[in-house]
């Protein structure tokens, strides 16, 4: 249950403050008052702005990990008999899903150096 709680905490935190953070300002017009080529709005994830498909995958895997962790916690708290093999198998599979779902996220986080330079500029 401790591991499931930690996984749920990490998944929740990752969705609240996504990788790269969120935009702190609106950038819709340049200093001359002309619309910019690539505008962004306050509160939108920076990763979603630069890597839209990667951000969608991140959120899908993160949501799977979060829901699987919550499922394990609810199964354990509900008081289901642990002696039943089916329930134990369901809990094991759900825990495997919760642990392995964020794995593709780590591979996605290898930003190109050019992307990091663009974000900093």
Task: Name the features.
repeat; two-stranded antiparallel ribbon; PGG_dom; membrane; mainly alpha; transmembrane; 121 residues; PGG domain-containing protein
Overview of the structural elements:
With 121 residues, the chain is mainly α. The protein has one domain (2-19, 47-120). It is built from 6 helices and 2 strands. It has helices spanning 2-16, 46-50, 52-77, 85-100, 103-108, 113-120; strands at 27-29, 35-40. Strands 1-2 form a two-stranded antiparallel ribbon. Helix 3 (52-77) runs antiparallel to helix 4 (85-100). The longest helix is centred in the middle third of the chain and has 26 residues, at 52-77. It is rod-shaped.
Shape: rod-shaped
Domain count, please report it.
Answer: 1
Unreliable runs, pLDDT <50, ≥5 residues?
A: 111-117
Number of strands: 2
What is the topological layout?
Elements (H helix, E strand, L loop, with lengths): L1 H15 L10 E3 L5 E6 L5 H5 L1 H26 L7 H16 L2 H6 L4 H8 L1
Antiparallel strand pairs: 1-2
Membrane topology: Multi-pass membrane protein
Subcellular location: Membrane
Keywords: ANK repeat, Membrane, Repeat, Transmembrane, Transmembrane helix
In a nutshell, what does this entry contain?
The chain has 6 helices and 2 strands, in the order αββααααα.
